[in-house]
Amino acid sequence: MSTLLNSRRRVVVVTLGLLLLLDLGRSIYARVGYSQPFENWQPDPAVHAELTWPPGADVPPDTPTGTRVFAQRCAVCHGPDGRGNGPAAPSLIPRPRDFTRGQFKYKSTPVGQPPSDADLIRTISTGLRASAMPYWQDILSAEEIREVVAHVKRLSTVFAGPPPTPLTIPPRVAPDAASIERGHALFTKHGCIACHGPEGRGGVKLADAKGQPVISRDLTAPWTFRGGREPEQIWLRITTGLAPSPMPSFAENTTPAERWDLVNYVLSLSRIAPWEPGGQFGGPGRQADPVKRGDYLVHAQMCGLCHTQATRGGIYRDEFFLAGGQRVDVWPHGVLVSRNLTSDPETGLGRWTPEQIVEAIRNGTTPDRHLNVFDMPWHFFHALRDDDAQAIAGYLKTLTPVRNAIPPPLRYGLLETVIGKLTRPLPAALPETITFLDGNFGQSTSEPIHRHLPQEILIIAQWLVLGLGTVLFLLSVSRERRRPRRPTGWILLILGVAGLGIAAFLIRIIYEMPATAFIPPEVIAKPVLATVHEPDPTTFRGQEHAAMVMRGKYLFTIASCAMCHQGNGEGARKTSWAPAGTRWSRNISSHPTHGIGAWSDAAVARAIRSGVSANGRALHWQGMIWDHASNWDEEDVRALIAYLRTLPPVDRKVPDPRPPSAEDCEKATVWVGENDLPGCR
Fold it and tell me: What is the pLDDT of residues 182-213, one digit of tens each?
């Protein structure tokens, strides 16, 4: 000790050396501390089936056409065996059809009979509007569709008998006031209001025969009727029911004419579509009920993407919906585990007030810490309206509590983080990346969390070394008697100390940047939100079109579309992941060649909801997260498309996706900056 005190230089060198070693230890532990999940969820293959990518890549060349096309086009949702257990299924409401049960909603045959070939061909060809079931008529040939129908029929024994006879639809009863009144009485008498509400607005969460979630239809929005809005199709739905959903058949307790009265009443409830003259938004995104509205917005913002644990193949764990536990490594900022958003009082948001939840969502400030924009993209959520933010908070408070204790973040060492941030503009700098790891890194048991303690010990040790070093330095100064003897010396000493303090403060800001602890959230969010394209009001075609475009811009922002596709829609954000290959976010500007300018609105909607590109290419649900977006209301999908049409053309060709290879990252890795290289580079 006496030897150490003999030299200020020796004190400084030893102190800095120990601090650097401890800082290196922090960086090392940030990489290895959460390297393994606390638990790996292994789904039941009968419930959730894995799938190779691209779909059908493992199908032998001599496979019959129907089986091959089903594997390529249908299995991602319906599962390889047609049991409705495809890997993308957990996020879809309602769940994909289980073909082995032989129950089909949209058919023209009597109750208890299977659909006709024409019914199945119609569904495959034209799809089911406002759902994840896309139309295939422009991608599959008529022969391929017939072969797929034959394959689907082989999956269930209900087709073993003679071909069913379609129902004969009687002439429609005139939709006059008397018929509508009779229909209203029948609507009340038969309990339709229990699911659809007295005004027919629906939105009630129900369960089908398998216990899977179903949401009752909004009868005021006929553009969402999946079997078609034509009066004849509605009559068939009332007659045949929609098994396995709770929608029953009314063939036994009503006459054909009474069912026409019901049709006339249902159609009388129709409101003007928002895109038509005089129309206004009225879907679930504008629900008066804040809980229903919040439920919808949580799915629209795709919160489950990060806050629900998933398997290596990208299958979400249903019973842990929004319970957090997913590991996210954001270099050079740190490693975090997504928070438990359920109402559990110990490990979730049960003790948070709605105001605290709103503050976290919009401003990145939680009761226990400040959120970096890479922790959660709150800078985009900053654009949330107050009523929507309150609705989300209200819905989260209603979630069933799930115990899942989330460990605190691990930060890289001060030196690595500061150098990583300061060198980002340089050509040779390491790229900024975000990596995701499958499994649950939280703890669903009651055991205490200890995995973060080594880094806490390292931090404490750094402070102790710094404090001890400071004391030894002062002692060495006193021992060497080199105190300033003139006022100028004292001034220089004070200025030196002040300079060190300012430098330390600036380094701290750089280390935590951006941090609401130092910078107001609006200052951080404003420049980011300013990158989102602002439509030219002179291009609006009336107030309805203006409302559609601005609603689309709002959704484009709060759903974080801009985070992947950039504010102008040019895309090119790279992702590499062994199960899915290397891909880049698409250019979705209005460019006719490199963007989606030549796509039809229907093709854009299909890509958003069903993960099918205009050229028929399947989009991985962990890339273009269409499994979440499939739950968007038709009004909002059309609004988003209306906004996308305003994006100026960007002449930028995005690299074509590459199938999985040995070069791809084992962990799902997203590059924040530009990267045109294939694989994990």
Answer: 999 999 999 999 999 999 999 999 999 888 88
**Token output for 660:** 């999985």
In a domain, residue 679? The reply is: no
Is 261 within the bounds of a domain?
yes
Q: Is the pLDDT of residue 497 over 70?
A: no
pLDDT band at 514 (very low <50, low <70, confident <90, very high): low
User: Does residue 309 share a domain with residue 187?
Assistant: no
- Residue position matching structure tokens 């795709």: 302
Number of domains in the chain: 4
Mean pLDDT of all residues in 570-585: 95
More confident of the two residues 423 and 105: 105
Domain with 310, as residue range(s), is: 292-437
| pLDDT surpasses 80 at 86 | yes
**Does one domain contain both 432 and 297?**
yes
pLDDT above 90: percentage of residues in the chain: 74
| CATH number (domain holding residue 185) | 1.10.760.10
Both tokens assigned to 482? 């080199």
d(CA 412, CA 27): 4
According to DSSP, the β-strands at 327-331 and 213-215 are unpaired
Q: Are residues 546 and 649 in the same domain?
A: yes
Name the amino acid, one letter, at 123: T
- Indicate the SS3 state at residue 602: helix
| Terminal-to-terminal C-alpha distance of the chain | 49
Peptide bond preceding 170: is omega within 30 degrees of 0, i.e. cis?
no
DSSP class per residue in 379-408: HHHTT--HHHHHHHHHHHTTSPP---BPPP
Q: Is the per-residue pLDDT at 481 higher than 60?
A: no
The reported pTM is 0.92
What is the distance between the alpha carbons of residues 380 and 1, in angstroms, rounded to a whole number?
Answer: 55
Same domain as 426, residue 301: yes
Contact 210, 244 (CB under 8 A): yes
Q: For the CA atoms of the chain, what is the radius of gyration?
A: 30
CA dist 639 and 388 (Å) reads 17
Are both 309 and 421 inside the same structural domain? yes
- Both 638 and 574 in a single domain? yes
Helices (H), 559-650: 561-565, 601-610, 626-629, 634-644
Q: How far is the C-alpha of 498 from the C-alpha of 2, rounded, in Å?
A: 29
**539 Cβ contact list (under 8 Å, min separation 6):** 646
